[in-house]
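Hey, can you fold this one?
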Amino acid sequence: MWQFEAIWSLDFEFFEDENHHPVPVCMFAREWHTGTEIFLRREQLLALRQAPFDIGPRSLVVAYAVNAELSCFIALGWPFPHNVLDVYVEVSAAGLDIEGLELKRPSLLETCALYGIPAMPAAEKTRMRDLILSGKGKYTEDEWEQIEGYNRADVNETDAVFGVIAPSIDLPRALLRGRYMGAVARMEWVGLPISRYLLDLLIENWEPLQLYYIARDDEFGLYDHTSIRLERLQDLINKRGWDWPLTSTGLPELKLKTLGRQAKRYPELKKLVRLREQIAELKISSLTNTVGADGFSRCPLLPFWTRSGRNQPSGRDKIFLPALPGWLHGGIAPPPGYAVVKFDWDGQEYGETAAFSGDPAMLEDYRSGDVHLGFGKRAGLVPPDATKATHREIRDKICKPIVHGQSYGMTAHGIAAKTGKSLLWSREIHASHRLTYPVAHRWIADVVAQAKFDGVIHSAFGWPMAVTSTTKSRTLLNYMAQASGADMMRIAAIAATEAGIQVCAPIHDAFWVLAPLDQLDDTIRQMTEIMIKAGEAVTGGLTIGVTVEDPVRSPKCLGDIRRPDDKGQAMWTEVWDLILSGFKREAS
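Sure. Predicted structure:
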């Protein structure tokens, strides 16, 4: 198969330590050609300095969700295999025609069910996982035999799935994706540092803070303690005569996304939306569950989880720190002797669209360094000599939402809602964008038409998404930019982590990086070069610029160095002023 001298399928069993790092319990591995099997218990694994099989360029290592296995390699101090193939990722890439795969990423048991492969009952799998976790590495001989059987069963199921999908695997791309799973393992291992002192103070004051803001901002009296009472919301809807979507049980829909849409129709709800988003119903425990004894927040990155191939970090009772409201990011703080730095690509998706379409006007505006003002000047919204300093409000409130919205197929009605302008004006500016960038709009239309004809669409580096009669045109409009942006992230993550850079977390089109203070300048230079080269690789040569934010140097936290008008900083300052003023004691 593919001329590899050896193909090793493997699976580790493990539990987590106080820092959410894996503690390997055992490993089962089988060689595909010869059937050679290896089962090693923890004490045997610890005695080895590398894997007990060839991991060189003539061998292939196969696993399901291999980032977990590679995390065990890190825990054991073993070098990574040269070639890695992740069956989970390749099932997600190859199973386009299998009903169910378009809705979610499957577990190994779910994958076996999709392919009609006999597998361990879910209840038995749960029992064995509970046994492994509860034993913490100490088991009777009978339990060890059960664990070995369970370990072997996982490899059997992985092999069975691998055998089915192997003929359809695009090997070069699969190996690149396998390298990315190695980057994921390294990033999950590092985690994002946070001030444990500040976090403990927040935990201590959390409920009083929630109640303070509810008392201040719940203008309609909808809350009972920290939860909205649906009957009170229903009374308000009836009193105001609002049109409101209902759940299947006939109750008012209360999802944040729904409430946000309703606030656009009924502006008096904006303060309620902000209250819910910022603090009222946030579960601080979901953050504390990610923070280890070493003060690093670690959350599963769930690579390739979205249809566009992006990560979707989350976990059971865990929340990804960067996914929390911006004010809480203020607690990001490096350990002594280190700094953390955020690196952002500048207008990544816009640059990709310009490069892929070859639209000369769009390329010129991207290279100018400010795509929003570039469009504003061409559309006559600002004068030719306008700058961000002279026309910030028009740039941010008019030009920016129009430019971003066109990537998602924003209509004239959407422009009117975003900008507060008339529908007539919005129709004219909507048409103006198409006249300004005709090549780009024709290219996007061709991409959508081709995807519907082919029944599939691929990113620049080949990540696929099935296209069916139910696929929304809006999804297709932005797929190339979104999915190719994910390609860019993966290439940069591979290069950075393999170069020894400690990447804390990937965030859509950005990275948080940890660096020793005496290596900070070199790390900033190296990471910037890597991201620029990754951008050029995906776009075919267009330089996607990189912004390096001010480093957070120990002993400071992000909240100490952000500017007053930075996103989330006003709320961060307000919360800490409350805590330090002793508001909780006064309230009690």
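The chain has a mean pLDDT of 94. Let me know if you want another pass with a different chain boundary.
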